[in-house]
Specification:
The chain is of the alpha/beta class. The chain has helices at 8-21, 32-36, 61-64, 67-72, 74-88, 95-102, 120-124, 182-194, 209-220, 247-261; strands spanning 25-30, 109-114, 129-131, 134-141, 147-149, 169-173, 198-202, 225-228, 241-243. The protein has 2 domains: 8-39 and 92-133 and 178-261, Rossmann fold (3-Layer(aba) Sandwich), CATH 3.40.50.1220; 61-90 and 139-173, SIR2/SIRT2 'Small Domain', CATH 3.30.1600.10. Strands 3-2-1-7-8-9 form a 6-stranded parallel sheet, with helices on both faces. It has a 3-stranded antiparallel sheet with strand order 5-4-6, with no helix packed on it.
């Protein structure tokens, strides 16, 4: 017989499972960390595409991927956007995205509030998604508002032109220096006003106030909060349960135990 006590992570996972069994609604807040496990590169840092201070065009990648440069020099923005898309092209959603999608079958209300533009949550099967920074596969013309959906950018000329009016096509994402879409913020506020029984923050450093807001709101309502991230973040000190594991490992363990307790 194994007399060892469960380790700290196991205890926390068991506590989360217990909370889930008492819940009817969940908000998942996700960031780059959940998709990094699918092999997506970051802009900077370990494995980053742009670790140098400037790009070959003499500007930081954040400037190259800004709304201002897109307007003045769309060929520059699309150059680096295409490089990023090419490095992400063969990646797909992972077990963490799949668990979040599966949760919709077991709970009355599940929403995903994500910073990611990769579309993995939708591909995994989630339906209630607030992709606050947009989706890189959705394109539109700024001149005539023609909308397009593309699987990848391999067939696009750079920069792409609208087939109807020859205007510049852009992805429906929030570039640096641009405002967040008010219609998506409105949906977020409406769902937060309804409230959730449990709130998860997964793979995000939570440096932006609008990403921290749901967790802070949950705390004000005495609702349980869970963070899944190997590193400490801006909200690690305020969440109820901090699981220092990668998203796929933690969510798969949580979900397996949850399903076993519901047999």
């Amino acid at each position: 017989m194994n007399n060892q006590q469960p380790n700290e992570a196991t205890k926390k996972i068991d506590k989360v499972v217990k909370l889930l069994k008492e819940s009817g609604s969940i908000l998942f807040i996700t960031g780059a960390g959940i998709s990094a496990e699918s092999g997506l590169p970051t802009y900077r840092g370990a494995g980053g595409l742009y670790n140098d201070k400037t790009t070959e065009d003499g500007m930081p990648v954040e400037e190259a991927l800004s709304g201002n440069v897109l307007k003045m020099h769309p060929e520059i923005t699309w150059k680096y956007l295409s490089q990023i898309e090419k490095n992400c092209r063969n990646a797909t959603f992972n077990r963490a995205h799949a668990v979040i999608a599966e949760a919709e079958k077991f709970f009355k209300r599940v929403w995903v509030f994500t910073q990611n533009i990769d579309g993995f949550h939708r591909a995994a099967g989630s339906h209630n998604i607030i992709d606050i920074h947009g989706d890189m596969h959705s394109l539109y013309c700024e001149d005539c508002s023609l909308k397009l959906t593309v699987k990848d950018y391999s067939a696009l000329q750079i920069p792409p032109r609208c087939p109807e009016c020859k205007g510049i096509i852009r992805p429906d994402v929030v570039f640096f220096g641009e405002y967040l879409p008010p219609e998506k913020l409105k949906v977020l506020q409406a769902e937060l006003a309804r409230g959730f029984d449990i709130y998860f923050s997964i793979g995000t450093t939570s440096v932006f106030p609008y990403i921290q807001q749901p967790i802070i709101y949950a705390k004000s309502k005495n609702k349980p909060t869970v963070e899944i991230d190997p590193s400490d973040t801006e909200i690690s000190s305020i969440v109820d349960i901090k699981i220092s594991q990668c998203a796929t490992q933690a969510l798969d363990n949580i979900w397996s135990k949850f399903l076993n307790t519901n047999k």
